[in-house]
């Protein structure tokens, strides 16, 4: 059974000039950015009674109405799973993610994730409307290890999400790729979207894609591989593996590399 939702806001002066999808998320529509964008594309978002395009920038006094339906969120159960906690205070918790662990529940996988473990450890996590990914600020792929930052309060989740959107949070990755990327430091700029042959895979493509930029520095060269420090300027799905495969230097151990 679907649940009917209606969201209404009047744009305040301080929000003037924001793109409509950014405004809706900051105003608390309570759904993911991708779903928000789909609602705009389908004409479910009305500004002063008229549908708008995603590029629309809100004006002071705009009356915004959004009507949509949502499937009820499944219950995410706490699980007593050991976590390697690096730092924790009243607002945030930083966890060292192990290889093979999924960050948050998703379709067909609602158990044994970091969110299940954190719900057991913390007792509660903020949702801001997203009950599938409570406390989640950013993600790492299942087989990627590293530090993940989670929010423990509504304020922290909102503030960290805005900081991430403004690229005020820097993410660095240690990477070993096959071969040598050709420069000791460089920038890969290539749009990423879903493959036309396999919709589950992300590839560099000019079709229905988003701009993506990856910065890298060579730390050490080996006979058949290179150790790099990599920084994401944008945050597209599987960005690092897609970009380095695109330049002929796939990531060592990447299970997605066919």
TrEMBL record:
<protein>
    <recommendedName>
        <fullName>Pseudouridine synthase</fullName>
        <ecNumber>5.4.99.-</ecNumber>
    </recommendedName>
</protein>
<dbReference type="Pfam" id="PF01479">
    <property type="entry name" value="S4"/>
</dbReference>
<dbReference type="GO" id="GO:0120159">
    <property type="term" value="F:rRNA pseudouridine synthase activity"/>
</dbReference>
<keyword id="KW-0413">Isomerase</keyword>
<dbReference type="InterPro" id="IPR036986">
    <property type="entry name" value="S4_RNA-bd_sf"/>
</dbReference>
<comment type="function">
    <text>Responsible for synthesis of pseudouridine from uracil.</text>
</comment>
<dbReference type="InterPro" id="IPR002942">
    <property type="entry name" value="S4_RNA-bd"/>
</dbReference>
<dbReference type="GO" id="GO:0003723">
    <property type="term" value="F:RNA binding"/>
</dbReference>
<keyword id="KW-0694">RNA-binding</keyword>
<comment type="similarity">
    <text>Belongs to the pseudouridine synthase RluA family.</text>
</comment>
<dbReference type="InterPro" id="IPR020103">
    <property type="entry name" value="PsdUridine_synth_cat_dom_sf"/>
</dbReference>
<dbReference type="InterPro" id="IPR006224">
    <property type="entry name" value="PsdUridine_synth_RluA-like_CS"/>
</dbReference>
<dbReference type="InterPro" id="IPR006145">
    <property type="entry name" value="PsdUridine_synth_RsuA/RluA"/>
</dbReference>
<feature type="active site">
    <location>
        <position position="141"/>
    </location>
</feature>
<dbReference type="InterPro" id="IPR050188">
    <property type="entry name" value="RluA_PseudoU_synthase"/>
</dbReference>
<dbReference type="InterPro" id="IPR006225">
    <property type="entry name" value="PsdUridine_synth_RluC/D"/>
</dbReference>
<dbReference type="Pfam" id="PF00849">
    <property type="entry name" value="PseudoU_synth_2"/>
</dbReference>
<dbReference type="GO" id="GO:0000455">
    <property type="term" value="P:enzyme-directed rRNA pseudouridine synthesis"/>
</dbReference>
<feature type="domain" description="RNA-binding S4">
    <location>
        <begin position="18"/>
        <end position="76"/>
    </location>
</feature>
């Amino acid at each position: 059974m679907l649940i009917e939702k209606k969201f209404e806001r009047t744009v305040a002066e301080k929000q003037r000039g924001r793109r409509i999808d950014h405004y809706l998320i900051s105003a608390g529509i309570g759904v993911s950015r991708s779903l928000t964008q789909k609602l705009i594309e389908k004409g479910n978002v009305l500004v002063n009674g008229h549908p708008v395009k995603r590029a629309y920038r809100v004006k002071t006094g705009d009356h915004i109405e959004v009507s949509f339906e949502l499937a009820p969120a499944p219950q995410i159960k706490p699980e007593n799973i050991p976590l390697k906690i690096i730092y924790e205070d009243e607002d945030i918790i930083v966890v060292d993610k192990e290889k093979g662990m999924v960050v948050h529940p998703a379709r067909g996988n609602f158990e044994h994730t970091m969110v299940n473990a954190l719900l057991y450890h913390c007792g509660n996590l903020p949702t801001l409307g997203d009950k599938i990914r409570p406390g989640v600020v950013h993600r790492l792929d299942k087989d990627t290890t590293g530090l993940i930052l989670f929010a423990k309060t509504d304020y922290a989740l909102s503030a960290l999400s805005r900081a991430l959107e403004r690229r005020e949070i820097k993410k660095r990755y240690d990477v070993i790729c096959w071969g040598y990327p050709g420069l000791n430091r460089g920038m890969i700029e290539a749009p990423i979207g879903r493959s036309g042959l396999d919709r589950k895979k992300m590839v560099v493509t000019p079709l229905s894609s988003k701009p993506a930029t990856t910065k890298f520095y060579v730390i050490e060269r080996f006979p058949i591989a290179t150790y790099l420090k990599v920084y994401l300027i944008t945050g597209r799905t599987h960005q690092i593996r897609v970009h380095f495969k695109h330049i002929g230097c796939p990531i060592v151990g990447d299970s997605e590399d066919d």
